[in-house]
Amino acid sequence: MNNTVLAKRYAKALFQVGKEEDLLDDFNGALAEMERMYNEVPEIGNVLTNPFYPQDVREKVMVHLVEALRAPALMANFFNLLVQKRRADVLPDIAQVFRALVDAERNMCRGTVISAAGISSDLNDKIKATLEKITGKQVVVVNEVDPAIIGGIIARVGDLVLDGSIKTQLKGLEESIKGSE
Q1: Fewest C-beta atoms under 10 Å: which of 15, 91, 136, 165?
Q2: The CATH number of 3-104 is which of 1.20.120.680, 1.10.443.10, 1.10.10.10, 1.10.520.20?
Q3: Model's pTM, two decimal places?
């Protein structure tokens, strides 16, 4: 069974429990923090997933991570279960699927706005409002700066990409000039 299918199963089960216990935010925060540690500190992922380490060592490492996170008891049990079932490698995928389930429950989506230079908060608010009107959902916007786009912005929300960058416009112009030759 591939990781995506497993991640969906675990995330859906965890989501149901979190919803029943009214702990979605706590679960989401603990999963996000565990995902961050797993991705940013390669040694953590290695210890939790490498069969070279004895099972009891992996379980002790997870216990210490859970204590450091101050995760709710249900999340602590969940994280420990993943290690016991040798499924810790699915942790980042579970966190992403869980976050998507929580967003869908709250009619939210996440988007990225890329600009050549930083944008003002007023412009950011207008972009956010436009994206919310287009998607019909509350949009959480993350801003990124990429000088390579020269100017304009690129907005991404899920599968929707609105590319108003000068770089893309120049490429289109170049292709139309080449096509007319």
Answers
A1: 136
A2: 1.10.520.20
A3: 0.79
